[in-house]
């Protein structure tokens, strides 16, 4: 099954081309990383996938629904969203458990009745990420890394088919970052794992569970496919405009930086 099918998508704002003729298919069973510099169009592509922006040209099909011919709000219920920005959007006085439960309703704060089943499920998700002991702590008092784990559990509460991770490790120290990455690795390997889409400009965050990568430069796809074939020194030099060398270690790519390429 195709999870995302993007055909000939271009997006222009104020005469500025932001996405240029993007073609991309993501099949079930694959987990993708989207790589590109600041301003290369990563967030814009995510907005197309979640239907918050509309392409100037081309077609978008997500989880079998063609945008323009479906109820996008229904599709969004199957898409989980985790970003670093979400850390600041939750109510600091809600407990970690309440924040996780709110994922069921895709709401900020808890406004609906919750059941014993919801509380158990949220508790189990926190436990999966080693956070059970913090379930009654106020969200605002948690560390950045703990908040991000709570937000991952929150996204999984609604059992999404597609999980979008938009720079989830932004602002985390190396220990917290590795903990969140380990949780993602574990999530992607679950039997009922959602398809994961990880957006970053730090390629060393691409865990072994990610199978494919799409490299963007100035709104254009310069490489897309199996990660070892796409995350090459040549492609990343092209994408980043500096001399870089990629080295793989334990199936993770690491980057060494040389001189600027003109
Ligand atoms: N709604 C909009 N109107 C006009 N320009 C926009 C709009 N959204 C994005 N852009 C521009 O499109 C380009 C791509 O932005 P986008 O946020 O998609 O990049 P990005 O790869 O996600 O960058 P970052 O890593 O900094 O988040 C940028 O130059 C940005 O200023």
TrEMBL record:
Protein name per the record: Molybdenum ABC transporter ATP-binding protein
Topology term for the membrane: Peripheral membrane protein
Q: Which GO terms describe its cellular component?
A: plasma membrane
Q: Which residues form the ABC transporter domain?
A: 4-243
Major subcellular site: membrane
* Keyword annotations: ATP-binding, Cell membrane, Membrane, Nucleotide-binding, Transport
Q: Which InterPro entries match?
A: AAA+_ATPase, ABC_transporter-like_ATP-bd, ABC_transporter-like_CS, MetN_ABC_transporter-like, P-loop_NTPase
Q: Does the record bear Metal-binding in its keywords? A: no
In terms of Pfam families, this protein maps to: ABC_tran
Q: Where in the cell is it found?
A: Cell membrane
Which SMART domains does the protein's record reference? AAA
Instruction: Kindly list the GO molecular function terms attached to this UniProt entry.
Output: ATP binding; ATP hydrolysis activity
What protein family does this chain belong to? Belongs to the ABC transporter superfamily.
ATP-binding: present as a keyword of the record? yes
Where is coiled-coil annotated? Answer: none
